[in-house]
């Protein structure tokens, strides 16, 4: 499982680096995306549940990826890695939830409610 997560993270970083234009814009078109990044970065807290963290992380990453002229190639690669990691975590949680449901089934037909 760890190997898969590392491969996804490395792949996201490589794709971000290879496909990113090498520009650095700091004009007015970038002020709103940069402000949003600051706001979403400030909203992610340890006491939030996983769903809240995933939502904030996805929003954070999409703002960067949808405004490539405003962020460095390293920022874009990190954003893609965040999305890949969130997706992998969500898939793992779904699998674990299904396993728990099937394990707790008490008769032959109760697993169908999973």
Concise account of the structure shown:
With 114 residues, the chain is mostly helical. The protein has helices at residues 2-19, 31-43, 50-65, 73-103. The longest helix is centred in the C-terminal third of the chain and has 31 residues, at 73-103.
Would you kindly provide a written description of the structure presented here, covering whatever features stand out?
- This protein is mainly α and 114 residues long.
- It has helices at 2-19, 31-43, 50-65, 73-103.
- The two termini are 24 Å apart.
- The relative contact order is 0.16.
- Residues 1-9 and 13-23 have low confidence and may be disordered.
Q: What coarse outline follows from CA principal-axis ratios? A: elongated
- SS-derived structural category: mainly alpha
Q: Which runs of at least 5 residues are low in confidence (pLDDT < 50)?
A: 1-9, 13-23
In percent, how helical is the residue content? 55-70%
Order of helical and strand elements: HHHH
- Mean pLDDT metric: 76
Beta-strand content estimate = under 5%
The main pleated sheet reads as: none
DSSP summary: helix tally: 4
| Head-to-tail CA distance between termini | 24 Å
Rg, nearest Å: 18 Å
Count of β-strands: 0
């Amino acid at each position: 499982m760890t190997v898969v997560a590392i491969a996804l993270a490395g792949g996201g970083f490589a794709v971000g680096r290879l496909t990113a234009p090498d520009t650095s814009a700091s004009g007015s078109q970038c002020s709103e995306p940069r402000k949003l990044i600051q706001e979403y970065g400030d909203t992610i807290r340890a006491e939030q549940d996983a769903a809240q963290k995933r939502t904030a992380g996805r929003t954070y990453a999409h703002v960067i990826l949808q405004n490539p002229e405003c962020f460095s190639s390293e920022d874009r690669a990190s954003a893609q890695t965040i999305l890949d990691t969130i997706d992998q975590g969500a898939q793992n949680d779904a699998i674990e939830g299904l396993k728990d449901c099937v394990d707790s089934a008490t008769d032959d037909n109760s697993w169908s409610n999973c």
